[in-house]
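Supplementary Methods S3. Complex input for the cytidine-5'-monophosphate-bound model.
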Amino acid sequence: MRPPFVITVDGPAASGKGTVASGLAAVYGLPMLDSGLLYRAVGVLAQRAGLDLDDAAAAAGIAQGLTVGQLTDPAFRTRAAGEAASRVAVHPAVRLALRELQLSFARRPGGAVLDGRDQGTVICPEAPAKLYVSASPEVRATRRWKQLAAQGEAVTYDEILADIVRRDERDGSRADSPMRPAPDAVLLDTSEMTIEQAADAARRIVEAARARWEAS
Ligand code: C5P
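Predicted complex, serialized as structure tokens:
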């Protein structure tokens, strides 16, 4: 039997992957999991509990108790939450604690869209459609800066660029599930694209994968 139609969308912060993933979820009528939110929630809840983000066991305790229903807090969308997320995401015990939740989403019989850093490499390597969305650090910093300014965060472009470079380095160099494209992922560089162009390009890539999946 063929596997469910799962689309994985991985890539670095502000690459456009969230927009691409939610666009694909709408086109194909699939539920979407923003796995970054899980790590953001663990980071923020750990900080609120006064825990040290470098304490793997303490952060894993928070991850073990996390439910999807807790993910709506706007505090998880801030710049500080992104930084806290990437710090707790280096701990294998945290990743393990969040694994089951992600796997059960990936195994939904009707399919799903999974957005993150390791969805195509670790969580669902059998996914029929895999995208790796990227853009230059400067383009990503500009996008993130506009987004955070619209949310009312007072932060400069240079601070955001430094955040992005630091987060890329940490996410890409960690030993457990580093950020990287799956061997069979299609790379989509959105540096020169509008949101609409990126969404169209992603749809074409997924259409080709879907045709292969339907024929399988
Ligand atoms: O995608 P987002 O910016 O919300 O992710 C926040 C952080 O969570 C990332 O920088 C990364 O450290 C971590 N993350 C991860 N694995 C995922 C999704 C996010 O390690 N699948």
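The beta strands are 6-10, 32-34, 112-116, 129-134, 186-189. The two ends are 9 Å apart (CA to CA).
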